[in-house]
Amino acid sequence: MKVFLIIALLVLPSHATAQDRSGAKAGLDLGRLRAITTQLESVVKQGKMAGAVTLVARRGQVVSLQAVGYHDLESKKPMRVDSIFDVRSVTKPITAIAIMMLMEDGKLEREVFSTGVWVVFNCV
Length: 124
Known about the structure:
alpha+beta; 2 domains; three-stranded antiparallel β-sheet; 3 strands; flat; disordered N terminus
């Protein structure tokens, strides 16, 4: 445990400095960037969430990439920025948002879309 803490203390300041430089270059408020991680750490400590990975980008440049908490809560496996998530239950809301965006842009009409879905399922 002591070895991990020493390594973390040596690594984290350099990463924070790199994040500060890129955040400043992108014109972002560094205090607000740090607040994201602080807030997520608080939520993890309260037990409301096992862990999270955040990515903040501006103008195509990654400004902040952070991992907080645990990837596996039972084994206390720490979250990593390259952790893989099972997002099967999230696909429906994402698809619904994409459909609404297409409808707002006039690229998809409600009547045509709904008729097409019913035809696919042989319900018409």
